[in-house]
Amino acid sequence: MAYTLTENDGVLTFSIDRPEVRNAVNHDVMDGLERFIGKLEEDPDVKWGVITSEGGKAFCSGGDLEEFHSFRTAEDARPMLTRMTRLLYRLAGVHVPVVALMDGAAVGGGCELAAACDFRLMRSDAKAGFIQGTLAITTGWGGASLLYEKDGNHSRTLQLLMGAGVHTAETLEGLGWVTEVYSGSKEAALDRFLKQYAAIAPGVLRAYKAVAVRKFESADLQGRMLAESEQCAVLWESEAHHEAVRRFREKKQPSED
User: Fold this and answer.
1) Full domain range(s) for residue 83
2) Partner of 139 for a Cys bridge, out of 76, 94, 143, 249, CB 3.0 to 4.6 A?
């Protein structure tokens, strides 16, 4: 299976299990993410949500270009982009706090997935970046809108998006995007983080998250994210994007002996 969904003592964990493709998102992963979000929305016994991955090398490398490379037009790409955008808006809007537990690289849509979470714990040797520009597209799952809404620093957000670079965990912590940088096991890091809130009633945590959600609603975050997704769909059918994908896929092909 492309993911696992587990619950332990009120902590619901969704883990992408596709290490062979750097935990790229495909339709199966989207199905699992939908199950995860639905349980966060409906189960009153869940206190925290956690998104992580398997393999220890990549948190998430974004959309699976091997699976989606056949999308040639905006019409082809739109259903995937729209579905994932709606899922990330729902993820951002659940009243349960959600942690992205990142023990490997996060690039492109992987950063958008992390941006939809409330907290980001990142292993000290990991790197991350909104690299969509290197593929001649923009963030397609609402990630830019999430950054603008949550960060509030216009020039810093533009630098992260326009620069399309990959940054160290330390740099991202300094920018305020990463909540904490950790060393050692991710399980221990998560345990330390959650213990800070152990004495706080779950209803209090949900209430504070609800304040943020009301702000998202009043600012029409969902509408902005969907408009962003549509812009990506338009760019998706450009020849520049198809050429960039072609070069990317060629680089990934094993060389012949």
Assistant:
1) 3-195
2) 143
Mean pLDDT throughout 11-18? 98
Q: At 106, which CATH number?
A: 3.90.226.10
In DSSP notation, 48-106 reads EEEEEESSSSEEE-SB-HHHHTT--SHHHHHHHHHHHHHHHHHHHH-SS-EEEEESSEE
The verdict on residue 30 lying in a domain is yes
215: left (phi over 0), alpha (psi -120 to 50) or beta: alpha
Q: Residue holding tokens 């929305």?
A: 41
Asked if residue 247 belongs to a domain, the reply is no
Q: How many domains does the chain have?
A: 1
By the 10 Å C-beta count (0-12 exposed, 13-18 middle, 19+ buried), 99 is classed as buried
Backbone region of residue 153 per phi and psi (left: phi > 0; alpha: psi in -120 to 50; beta: other values): beta
